[in-house]
Amino acid sequence: MAKAKYIFVTGGVTSSLGKGIISASLGKLLQARGFKVTIQKFDPYINIDPGTLNPYEHGECYVTDDGAETDLDLGHYERFLNTATSQANNITTGRIYNNVITKEREGQYLGKTVQVVPHITDEIKRNVYLLGESGDYDFVITEIGGCVGDIESLPFIEAVRQVKWDVGQNDFLVIHLTLIPYLKAAKELKTKPTQHSVKQLLEAGIQPDILVCRAETKLPDDIRKKLALFCNVQYNSVIEALDADTIYDLPILMRKEKLAERVLTKLKISNKTEPNLDQWKDFLGKLKNPTEEVKIGLVGKYVELPDAYKSIAEAFIHAGAVNECKVDLKWIPSESINEENCQSVLGKLDGILVAPGFGERGIPGKIEAVRYVRENKIPFFGICLGMQCAVIEFARNVLKIKDAASTELDENTKSPVIDLMEEQKKITIKGGTMRLGAYPCTFKRGSKAATIYGKSKIIERHRHRYEFNNKYLTKMEKAGLMASGTNPETGLVEVVELPDHPWFIGTQYHPELKSTVLNPHPLFVKFVRAAIQNSKLHAKN
After folding, report:
1. Is there a contact between 275 and 32 (Cβ–Cβ < 8 Å)?
2. At a CB cut-off of 8 Å and minimum separation 6, what does 23 contact?
3. pLDDT by position in tens, the chain (length 541)
4. How many Å apart are CA 73 and CA 19, to the nearest integer?
5. Contact, 524 vs 315, CB < 8 A?
6. Does 339 participate in catalysis according to the annotation?
7. Are 90 and 68 in contact (CB under 8 A)?
8. N or C: lower Cβ tally within 10 Å for the chain?
9. Of residues 446, 448, 451, 458, the one with CA closest to residue 511
């Protein structure tokens, strides 16, 4: 293909229909035919990025190799396509306006009145074309966040309309994801919400090429014909998207519905290659036919909204499939844990993961959870703040430094075993100023971490301001807590482990961000394996 084709995925009727999963599934089907695909997300909120948003507001903040704090849908894109995304793959209204205002202040629009059209829409289009004009991709799939008709989405919809005239109809396609509700009282599916949604798109100058219809029951032939007639799309471009057991079923379901074939036909691309989904099917087979089951507790601050730990949950699905094991995640609020109830809350679990987070709320519970699993030899995995809690717990209960703490939790602590990173001490702006993105880590020879990875040096993604205080490193290691991974340039402790424990590892970085269907993260794979062994040990006893 000489140049990239641009596919836009819009949504109507309601949010949370799964535009990101449909985009990722289409991308997977095209990729499985040999095409090079990337997916980007345009979010209509005014925040520059989700980095300063509470996880309860927006779910997890997904971090890319180049240090961008992005929407959690980018995690889906990476997990499905097994290719890295970047800052260019997630754009917000805030970033668009910030770029335009910065240019205006620099005098780039000298004498011009800066307006939504053309200046804001031009900046949106510039970001659309950024990936397409790189020459790296055959398809650029762009997911437009929110719903058609939302005030904040209007500039993006107008920019999409203009793209068609820029690139021509043979290089442009719109997929509209909508909901077909079933009314139990009337015992029928209703198409009117979709008709109104498409009408709003038409009023904005955009005719959808394909309708993907979310529904709880199958779409009868007469419903498909009605949708095709009143939404002005071809009958075979009305695609059914039923609720699935797992998001990883969607590429297979969309293949049955011939979504990719319709896209290729509409874009006049002749590709008769059958998609190679053998590895994907193998993964699904193991996922759906486990021979083992383990209960793993996820101890965190935001467990009421599982999307706050989306990448961790998905990494356990990938690791479970490799081990042919169903991972039953138990979501445990860290605030609910104390010294008295540790046994009753954690005692029947096969492994414990203490999750990332910020701020002091729920920290005592996390520290108690670490103490319990350390003393009772239960497999433990700590990520970011979870690793820091393991360091604090070890300092307090093994080194007997009773006031050991993090300066994030107690600015005046006399024993800051976790401290603010030196380069962070003069920073006052919160957005995009943490230690973000991919950094190297070198392992000690013979350590469990080195054995698990099978290599001496790795690169992982980070998102933190506080670090292990190396003033306490010698004491910690003498007492048995090994700093098995460090940054080769700064000496920052990246991994801690207890050699005399069945499985006790904490990482300053976020390994969950690099786990994909085709490349499950080794730490999660081996942690699940350790939980299986612990489960069998409990069964014998």
Report:
1. yes
2. 9, 39, 73, 76, 77, 141, 143
3. 458 999 999 998 888 889 999 999 999 999 999 999 999 999 999 988 887 777 777 789 999 999 999 999 999 999 999 999 999 999 999 999 999 999 999 999 988 999 999 999 999 999 999 999 888 999 999 999 989 989 999 999 999 999 999 998 899 999 999 999 988 887 889 999 999 999 999 999 999 999 999 998 899 999 999 999 999 999 999 999 998 999 999 999 999 999 999 999 999 998 778 889 999 999 999 999 999 999 999 999 888 888 899 999 999 999 999 999 999 999 999 999 988 898 998 989 999 999 998 777 878 999 999 999 999 999 999 999 999 999 999 999 999 998 988 887 888 888 988 887 566 566 655 555 567 899 999 999 999 999 999 999 999 999 888 889 999 999 999 999 999 999 999 999 999 999 999 999 999 999 999 999 999 999 999 999 999 999 888 776 6
4. 9
5. yes
6. no
7. yes
8. C
9. 458
Name the active-site residue from 467, 497, 512, 521: 512
Of 464, 460, 454, 470, nearest to 526 by C-alpha is 454
How many residues are recorded in the chain?
541
The tokens for 182 are 């079933």
Does the global pTM surpass 0.90? yes
Instruction: Give the C-alpha separation, 89 to 68, whole Å.
Output: 9
Q: Are 313 and 248 in contact (CB under 8 A)?
A: no
91 membership: H or E segment, kind and range: strand 90-92
The token duo for 456 is 């001496």
8 A C-beta contact, residue 259 and residue 212: yes
510 is an active site residue: yes
3-state secondary structure of 338: coil
Rg (C-alpha) for the chain, rounded Å, is 25
Q: Which of 176, 318, 510, 521 is catalytic?
A: 510
d(CA 247, CA 207): 28
Residue 381 and residue 525: Cα distance in Å, rounded? 12
Q: Is the dihedral of CA 405, 410, 411, 415 positive or negative?
A: negative
Q: Which helix (H) or strand (E) holds 54?
A: none
Q: Say how far apart CA 199 and CA 128 lie, in whole Å.
A: 24
The catalytic position among 61, 147, 342, 384 is 384
Decide if 512 is catalytic: yes
- Residue 477 corresponds to which tokens in the numbers above? 């290691």
